[in-house]
Amino acid sequence: MRYLMTTISTETTPAPDERLYAEMGAFIEEMTAKGILLATGGLEPGGVRVTSQGDEITVMDGPFTEAKEAVAGFALVEVRSKEEMIELARRFRKIVGDGVSEIRQVFGP
Amino acid sequence: MTDLHGAIDAVWKLESAKIIAGLTRLVRDVGLAEELAQDALVAAMEQWPASGVPDNPGAWLMTIARRRAVDHIRRAQRQERAHEQIAHDLRRDGHAGPQDEHGEYEEQDEQDEHDEQDDTLRLMFLSCHPVLPAQARVALTLKLLGGLSAAEIARAFLVTEQTIARRVAEAKRTLSEHRVRFELPGREHTAERLSSVLDVIYLIFNEGYAAASGDDLMRPGLCLEALRLGHMLAGLAPHEAEVHGLVALMEIQASRTAARTGPSGEPIRLHEQNRGRWDQLRIRRGFTAMLRAREAGGTPGPYVLQAAIAVCHAQARTAEDTDWARIATLYQALARLMPTPIVRLNQAVAVSMAQGPQAGLELVEALTADPSLRDYHLLPSVRGDMLLRLGRHDEARLEFQRAASLAANAAERAFLLRRVDEIAAEEPAGATLGQAVRDFLGRRDLDPQTLRSYGQTLRRLCRSLGEATPLARVTAEQVTRVVTAAWGRAAVKTWNRHLSALRSFSAWAGLEDLTAQLQRRPDTPATAEPIGPARLDLLWSRADLPLRERTLWRLLHESGAPVSAVLSLNVEDIDLDDRRARAGRTWVTWRSQTALLLPALIAGRTRGPLFLSDRRPGPARTPADGDLCPHTGRRRLSYERAEYLFKQATRHLDPSGNGYTLRRLKPRDVPPGELDDAVRA
Q1: What total of structural domains would you count in chain A?
Q2: What CATH number does residue A23 fall under?
Q3: B229 → chain A, closest CA residue
Q4: What is the DSSP letter of B149?
Q5: Contacts A87 to B, Cβ<8 Å
Q6: Is the CB of B244 inside 8 Å of chain A's CB atoms?
Q7: N- or C-end of chain B: fewer Cβ atoms within 10 A?
Q8: What is d(CA B74, CA B38) in angstroms, rounded to the nearest whole number?
Q9: pLDDT tens across B507-543, in order?
Q10: Where are the alpha helices (DSSP H) in B606-673?
Q11: What are the helix (H) ranges across B180-268?
C-alpha cells in the first residue's frame, strides 16, 4: 500500500543544518535502496492557488496568510502496513525535530 | 501506545534480515540465530509497553540478540574461535545496552556497516542455497530476509502454516547437515549462486503476479516482498547487471498491475490494456534500474534481456507502436541462453507479431511435441490466436476450448471460454472425440481393470487434442505426437499398454489405426537376478531376524520354490524327516539350514498355515478356513506383507535402496521353474 506523508513546519521547527542534511540524505538513500521510498521532495513556501466557483476560475499567487503551518515537503512511500508507515514516520521525525507529519493512504493509481 | 504489537511487527519486518544475518555470523547456525532474534523480539514485547519504543528499535533488538548470542556461546564453551569472537563482541558491546536508561547503542564505524551488508548478502546466498529444494528456498528467504511469519507465508501460498513451518525447519536441517557455510561464494561460483538468488526472488514475484491457482489473479503482497528483496539485493551487489535487470523486470511488470485485470478479475492481454493505467512511477524506476544494469556492463544475461523486452513494451505509447522486431530479436537472444519451452513460446508470439501469424505458427508447431508443455494452457491459447488471425476459425475455437479445460485459474478459464464463444461456431461434423471416448468407456463387455487402463490413455488423448475435436479429424500424426510427448520415456509395459488401448479404440470407432506410426516395443521379461552370496551372508548373520522371517527366507533360498507355493504350505504337509512338503501338485524341498529352524517355527502345531501373520484378523475380515490357524486363530501370512517385510529388511543391502523382492532369494544356479519340474511328483 502507498502512503503520502506531508510534513508541516511549526514555530519550533529548527532550521536545517549540516547534520540534518547528512542524516536526511542517508535516510532517503536507505529507504530508496530498500524500494520503500517512491518519490520525495520539498515544497516552496508560497505557490499558486487555483480556485473554481461556478464557471469562474481564479488564480492567486501565494503566500497565503491564513495558512500558518505550510506543507514543507512530501514523501510517497510503499509499505506493507500502516504500522510500517508509522515506524518510518517515527524515524523521519527523529531526524527533523519538532514539527508535524501527516500520513494518508493513497488509492489508485 | 496504540497497537504496540503492530509497531513491533513493523520494526521486525524492517530489521529482521540485518539482525538474523549478524547473528548468523556470530553463532554460525542460521536456525539458532533466528531463535536468538526471536528471543529479542519477546524481550521487546515485555519491555516496550513500559519503556516505550526505543529511539532506535532495530539497534535495540540487535544489542539484546547479540548479548544472548554471546551468552549462548559462553555457556556452550565452544571452540577457541568462539572465545575470540566473544572477546571481540564484548569489546564491541561496551557497556551500552537496553538496560541503561536512554542508553547509547554502539556507534558503528564504516567497517561494521560494510560487514553488516556482507552479512545480509551471505544470508541471501544461504537461504537460496542450491542444496535446498526450490520451495524451501522461497519459504526460508521470505522468513529470514522478508521477516514474514510462517502464517503470513502460508497465507500467500495458500498452504497450511504447518507446511511452511516444516519446510523452514527442514531447510535449516538440510543446511546444517550439508555444513553449508555462512560465506560469500568464491569468484568462480558467484554467477551461479547469484542466479539462484535471483530465481528465488523472481519465483516469489511470479507467485504474486500470476497466481498459479486459486481465484485471485494476483497476490500483490508477494510482489511487494519480491521487489523489496530485489532492491535489497541491488543495494548489496550493485555491480551485478543481472540484479538490476531483475529489479527492472519486476518494476515494469508490476507497473501493469492495475491494468492487467478487468472489473471482474478477468485477465486483460498486454496489447489490450489501458496504458493510461500503467504506473509511470514504477516504469521510471524500472528504466532507472535498467540504466544501472547497462552501467554494470557485461554480456546481457536472462534477466537483463527480459527486462529489455519489458522496457520495449513500456516505451510503446499504444499497442500498435510496439517494436515487435526488436522484441523478437531479444527473444531470440533469450532463447539462446534459456531455450525453455515457455521462452520459445513467447518468441513465437513476438515473431507472429513482427512477421505474421504463419511464421509464428511454425514455431509453435515445433513446441506441441514438448512433454513439458502438454498441459500448459497458454500453448493452445497462443496457437488459437494465430489460427484465428489466419482465418482458421474452427481450429482456433477448438484450441481455446482446450486451453480453457487446462487452465487452473478460474478467471483465466472464464476468459478463454469467452474467446470460444466469440468465434462463430461452425457445426461440428459428426461425433466429437470426447463423446466417442465416453461411449467407448461406457461399454459393458470389458472388465473394470481394462476400462480403468483404457480410461487413462483416452483421457490423456482428450486433454491433449480437446474433447470437442470432431472424431473424424483425429489423425495418426496427432496421436503420435500426444503419445510420444506423454509416454515417450515411460516403461516398455506402459508404452505398449497405451498403444493397445488406442488400437482397441480405433477399431471400435471404425477409424483407421491411430497408432499406425507408433511401434510396439519389445517386452523383456522382468529379470529377478538372485541376490549375491556376500549380501546373503550379511543377511543371515543378522541376529535380530524373527524366527518366522528367517525360516521363510531360508526356505525360499534353499528350495528355489515360488513364493506363493511356500506361503501356501500347511503344517500337516511338512515332512521333517525327508525335508520336503507337498505344495499343490509340486514338492518343496529344503536343506540343513531350514531343517534347523522348522521345528521351532512349528512349535507343536499339527495343522494350519505354516507361516502365520502377526495378529488375528479383525472381526470384519474372516479368512477362508484353510487360511486360519486352528491353534492360534491367526491368519496365513500374506504375500504382500511378506514382501514388504523383506524389502524393509534388505533396504540397506540393496544398492538401489529399495530393498529386494522375495523372488530374488532364489539360489543362483537354479533357473526359475527348472527346480519345480525336477521335484514334480
Answers
A1: 1
A2: 3.30.70.1060
A3: A34
A4: -
A5: 7, 10-11, 14, 57
A6: no
A7: C
A8: 19
A9: 878 778 888 888 888 876 556 778 888 888 888 888 8
A10: 639-650
A11: 187-209, 220-236, 241-255
